[in-house]
Write a structure and sequence with these properties.
The complex is a heterotetramer, with two copies of chain A and two copies of chain B.
Chain A lengths: L2 E3 L2 H4 L8 E4 L9 H10 L4 E4 L11 H5 L3 E6 L6 H9 L3 E4 L2 H13 L3 E4 L13 E4 L2 E6 L4 E12 L4 E2 L8 H5 L2 E12 L18 E4 L9
Parallel strand pairs in A: 1-12, 2-3, 2-9, 3-4, 4-5, 9-11, 11-12
Antiparallel strand pairs in A: 6-8, 7-8, 9-10
Chain B lengths: L5 H10 L7 E4 L18 E4 L3 E5 L20 E8 L2 H9 L5 E4 L3 E3 L4 E2 L13 H7 L3 E4 L11 E2 L14 E3 L3 E6 L2 E7 L5 H6 L5 E9 L2
Parallel strand pairs in B: 1-2, 1-5, 5-8, 6-9, 8-10, 12-13
Antiparallel strand pairs in B: 2-3, 3-4, 6-7, 10-11, 11-12
Classes of the chains: A alpha/beta, B alpha/beta.
Chain lengths: 224, 218, 218, 224
C-alpha cells in the first residue's frame, strides 16, 4: 500500500538514527536530491549509506557527510568527494569500496530472493580478500552476499498514484534495482500523474516496490 | 609522424581494433578519443556502464542534459538506436561477455596481462566498473603512454599497484609499440616509426619477444 | 447457507484475507474466483507469474488478445496501472518476498504447513511457478475442499504426494473450516455453520487444537 | 553484428543436429512460431530444448516432438502436451522438470556472467535432490548453475535494423532473458522498423543480444 506525501520532509520523517539507506543516482545524475536534503535537515545520525558515489561536497550525499551524519558508506567510486577522503583519513567515516557490478548484483540479489551469487569479478584482487573462492570450470569466482537496506531513496521522472515509475535517460541507473532491495522504498519524482497515464509497456519500476511517493520540490539538474 | 600528439596516435591505432558492428566500452582518458578517429561508415555502438548502449558525441554547449551522462559523468548524447539500461542490466551485460571489446587506460600491465588501473598510492579511491569490465569482456585492449612521466616502465614483470584483474589484457597500445599478451609473454607486433626494438625493450621491464611479422605502426 | 456452492463459499472467505492495497497472486482453481467476490472500492493488484502486475477480469467474448494471458494461459485483461514483466523480473519479484499474499489450491497440506499441489501420481507433470511462490511469498493461504472426492482427508500429518515446499502454508480455508498453521500444529479458528468440531476433526487426519476464540465462518 | 534474413528458413539454416535451443514463449503466448516451424521443416535432430512449456500437439514445439527431433526437453510445465507424456513414457524423450523461477534465474545467470546462485526454491522437494544445500541465516538454499544454449529462438513485436526489440503485453515472458543466454540469438518479429523508430526508453532487448533478425511470415495468434 503506497502513501503519497506532500513534502520530502514528511516522507522521511520517521527514518531513525542508525538506519541503512540506499541512495540511487550515478554521480549527480538521477540522485534523489530532495530526500537527501530533507534527511540532512532532519539531522538523522549514525547512518550506513549504500550509494555508488558520495556526491560532491556541495551537493547530494556530500551534505550528509559534512554534517557527520554518516558512519559508514559502501559504494564503488568516491574520488569526486574530498570530504569523503578527509573523514576516512580522520577515522570518522568507514568506507567500503565495491566493484560497481558486484555492488549492483548484490543489491539485485537482495531484492530477488537470491541468497548468494558466485561472480568472477575481482578474483585475485584486494576485493576478494577473505572471501570464499570457488572454481567453476576454468573460472574462479567469489561468493557474494545480498546487500539490502532499511530504506531506499530513489528518484524517477514520473510516478503514478500507484507508485509505478518511469525514468529519463541515464538517470535510471541504480534507482530501479535499489527500489527492490529495501524494506521501505521512498521515491521522489518530478511529476505525479494519474493511474493509467503511464503506458504499461514502459513502466520500469512497478508500484509494488514503492511504499512512499513524493513530488520533489526542486531539481538543480547539475552536471558534475 | 607530423605534430600529432602521442595520445592521438595511440587512439588512432586503437581505433583499428574496432570493427563494423561492434559493441564497445571505452575507459576514461585516451579511449574517449577513439570515436572521433573511427573511419566513416562504420556502425559501432558504445556502451557506458552507467546505463546506455549507443552513446554519441558530447552535446553542443548549452545542449547538455543532466539526465544524460557517461560513466565519466560527462554530458553526452545518444545516437539513433540507443537504449537505456538499469545498473543491474548494464553490468549483467558487461559480466556476461556480451561486449565485443573494451579499451581501457592503465597504470601498469604485467607480462601475463594482469592489469592495475584503479588505485594509485595516496589518491582517493574508486573502483567503478573497471573490475567488472575486465572480468567479463571478451577482449581487453589497453591504451597508455609507454612509461610514467618520470620515465619508469609501466609494462612490468609484476604489477606493484593494486590489481584490477589477473590475466585479462589481450593487447597493449602505446606511442612506441603494439604488444600482444600471449601464453608465452609479451609479443612485440608493431613498432612506431623511428623507434628501435632496443628502445622499446629499454622502456619495458618485462622481456619482449619480437614477432616474426613485426610491422611499423601506422 | 443458501444454494451457494462450497467453492464459492471458500472463495468468499478467502477474499477476506485480501486487504486494500495488496499485491496478490492467485493459483488456479478456487483462487481464480476471488476477484469477483472482493468488496467494492478496494485497490488490489493481481500478479500473474507469466508476467503481469494488474491482471483484470476475462475479456468479453471476441475481445481476447493472444498476447495477454495469465499463468493458467487464459485470456485476461489489464487494469489501469498494470505493467508487464519479463519472466526473470516476475520471479525475482515472487522469490524476493514482494507479494503480500498468495492464495493457492492444494492436493495435501501437512500439520506443519508442508504443501503438495503440483504432482498427482499418474498425471503429466508440471511444476510451473508453485515452488517459487511458496518459497518467496510472505503469506500463503490454501483454499481447497476439505477432503478428496472419495472422502479421504487432505490435511495430514505428513503429505504423501511430492512436496511443493516445506513449512510454507499459513492458513487453510475449506468449506468446513478455517485452520491456521502454528508452531504447535493446526489451530481451528473458524467453523462453518451447521458443522461440529468433531466433524471437522474426523475429516482431518492431523489433530486440531480448537482456538479459544473459535467463531462461525461467515 | 546483426544479420537480417528474409525468411525463418534461412535464419535457422545452419542449426546443426545436436544443438541446444532455448525457445521463448509461455504456453502459446509469445512463441517464435515461424522459427520453430522452420526447424520442423528442416528436420534437425537430436535437439535439447529449453522451454517453459512444450506447446500443444498441433502448435509450437509439439511439432518438433512429434517429428522425433527432440532428445531432451527442460522446462517447468508440460501438462498440456500429450505427445510429451507419450514420448517420455516410451523412453524416446528425456524430460527435466524445473521450478519456473529457478529455470529463469539460471537462464539469467548464463547471460549475466553469474556462475552459481543460491535459491530457496524447492528445498525439501524432489527438485533439490542431489544438489548442494547451504544454510544462509535461517534459510536453506540450493546451489543452481547457469543454463545456456547454442541458439535462442525468440519472438518480439517490433525490431529495428540494429536488433533492438520491443514486446507486446505478456508475450514478453521468457523472450528477453533467453535472448541474453545463447551463443546465437535469432529473433522473429511481427514488424521490422528503421533505426530510431523505437523510443530508447522503451527498448526491452537491446540489439547487442540479437545476432539474427527475421520478420515472421505468419502469426496464428492462438490462445491455448
Amino acid at each position: 500500500m503506497i502513501e503519497i506525501f506532500a513534502t520530502a520532509e514528511e516522507a522521511i520523517a520517521d527514518v531513525p538514527d542508525g538506519s541503512t539507506i540506499m541512495c540511487g543516482g550515478f554521480g549527480l545524475c538521477g540522485v534523489p536530491e530532495n530526500l537527501v536534503r530533507a534527511l540532512g535537515a532532519k539531522g538523522t545520525r549514525n547512518l550506513t549509506v549504500i550509494s555508488n558515489n558520495a556526491g560532491v561536497d556541495t551537493f547530494g550525499l556530500g551534505g550528509l557527510l559534512a554534517n557527520g551524519q554518516v558512519k559508514k558508506i559502501l559504494g564503488s567510486y568516491f574520488r569526486s568527494s574530498e570530504i569523503c577522503a578527509r573523514l576516512q583519513a580522520s577515522g570518522a567515516l568507514e568506507v567500503e569500496l565495491l566493484p560497481q557490478g558486484t555492488m549492483v548484483e548484490r543489491i539485485r540479489a537482495a531484492g530477488a530472493g537470491v541468497f548468494g551469487v558466485y561472480l568472477p569479478t575481482g578474483v585475485g584482487t584486494c576485493v576478494a580478500e577473505g572471501k570464499e573462492v570457488r572454481l567453476f570450470g576454468a573460472t574462479e569466482c567469489v561468493l557474494e552476499y545480498p546487500l539490502a537496506a532499511d530504506y531506499a531513496f530513489i528518484r524517477a521522472y514520473q510516478g503514478d498514484r500507484l507508485g509505478n515509475l518511469v525514468y529519463r535517460k541515464t538517470a535510471r541507473n541504480f534507482n530501479p534495482v535499489m527500489a527492490k532491495a529495501a524494506r521501505i522504498t521512498i521515491a521522489e519524482v518530478e511529476e505525479i500523474v494519474e493511474v493509467g497515464e503511464l503506458d504499461p509497456e514502459v513502466i520500469v519500476t512497478p508500484g509494488i516496490f514503492v511504499k512512499r511517493l513524493v513530488k520533489g520540490a526542486r531539481y538543480e539538474r547539475r552536471i558534475e | 609522424m607530423s605534430g600529432e600528439s602521442s595520445k592521438t596516435r595511440i587512439a588512432r591505432r586503437a581505433a583499428r581494433e574496432v570493427r563494423d558492428g561492434y559493441y564497445v566500452n571505452l575507459g576514461i582518458g585516451i579511449p574517449t578519443m577513439i570515436p572521433a578517429v573511427l573511419p566513416e561508415g562504420m556502425t559501432v555502438l558504445f556502451h557506458s556502464e552507467n546505463g546506455i548502449l549507443g552513446m554519441g558525441p558530447p552535446p553542443s554547449p548549452g545542449e547538455e542534459d543532466a539526465d544524460l551522462v557517461d560513466a565519466g559523468k560527462r554530458a553526452i548524447t545518444a545516437v539513433p538506436g540507443a537504449s537505456y539500461l538499469c545498473s543491474d542490466d548494464s553490468f549483467a551485460l558487461v559480466r556476461g561477455g556480451h561486449l565485443d571489446l573494451a579499451i581501457l587506460g592503465a597504470f601498469q600491465v604485467s607480462e601475463r596481462g594482469d592489469l592495475a588501473n584503479w588505485s594509485l598510492p595516496g589518491r582517493l579511491t574508486g573502483i567503478g566498473g573497471a573490475m567488472d569490465l575486465v572480468a567479463g569482456t571478451r577482449r581487453i585492449v589497453v591504451t597508455m603512454e609507454h612509461t610514467t612521466r618520470d620515465g619508469q616502465p609501466k609494462i612490468l614483470r609484476e604489477c606493484t599497484y593494486p590489481l584490477t584483474g589477473r590475466r585479462v589484457v589481450n593487447l597493449i597500445i602505446t606511442e612506441l609499440a603494439t604488444i600482444e599478451i600471449t601464453e608465452r609473454g609479451l609479443l612485440l607486433k608493431e613498432i612506431a616509426p623511428g623507434v628501435s626494438v632496443d628502445e622499446v625493450q629499454r622502456a619495458t621491464e618485462a622481456p619482449l619477444t619480437v614477432d616474426r611479422w613485426l610491422t611499423l605502426m601506422e
